[in-house]
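Q: What does the assembly look like in three dimensions?
Context provided by user:
Components: two
Sequences:
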Amino acid sequence: MNDLRKLARIILVGLGIYVLITHAIGAIAALPYLFFGGSPLRGYAVGQLVSFALFAVCSGLVVYALIWKADFLSAKITGIYESDQAEVWWLPFAFRLASVCAGILLLSWSISALTSIIATYVQMADPRFVNRSMPWQRLVGWIIQLPLAIYLLCGAPHFVRWQVRKTIEQCKRFEEEKNVSQEEAAR
Amino acid sequence: MTRMYLMARLALTVLGVFIFIESMRYLQLAWSVGDKWGPPVCFLGIFLLLSALACRMLFWSDAWVERMMGPCDEDMPPVSCVRAVGGFRVALGFCGLLILSGRIEILIRAAAFIVVAPKIIVNMIVYKYVDEVFYMPGRSWLRLIVDLAKAALGIYLVLGAPRFVRWQMSKFYAPASEDQE
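A: Here is the predicted structure of the complete assembly.
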């Protein structure tokens, strides 16, 4: 169990650092536009900087939680060991870890989308900017994306339970099919 | 199939899914780069190459796995059915979550279209009026179809890709083999 907790911690911290670096590069690359670019480009730079600031806060919280509250979080991801189901006890952990990893990436994308929306509004404030349409799908997409990311970050309990149940069902079905084919082969 | 073989196969499967998704981007690009024939042919070639690579990783990866892992160690116990099915479902579910979460916009558009579709169909049949959205250029149609295909793939993967997993399992757990942990 300890190995699984370490594995969870390594994967999550690695993913967090990867996403942090990605956003940091985006923000640094946007700095020249902020100081020397024209107005529409300044909108892009503002978006990038807001993205970096938001993500720095989120990443700071995640890194703090993973370092100082590591046991608590990894225990939550690993789950409770059930000795009567020794064969499948690792399944919830694996699905939960996959969900949390997807949640971190999705949170990163949703923050990028938010900053892109902010950048579009900054650009639209400029009277010289011609395109003044904001597709409503982008906004609605972001509104759905953010809660989904938070749900996945929380371990997606319903999704994990459903996946575990389906996996066990599929295994049983496969075992039955295999037994039938073995009996047929024996005949 | 030993545990290391399973892990190698899972890694190739995940890579194959993402390469296939990446290849679709080049299909979209091939129809949106303009009138000259050079760039579209080039992008189409990249699409075919990446698709072939993805199919090889997803469906015929045995030779690559053996080359990566070396000859099968007879002393190692074969991995159990639960581990193999669980491993495939976790890996494919993770891919599906990432693919699907990047296509929320297209799902919203599809849902909005389903809501207004009856009205459009009635207009087409009764009033012979074709909505202007159907007159969009071919490359927009292609982009829409590719996005919908990606969303469909994402949904299938989030559901655990049951047929793909069953096919993989029947391939590697022939009736003669014994499942032991």
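Follow-up: Residues 120 and 148 of chain B are 20 Å apart (CA to CA).
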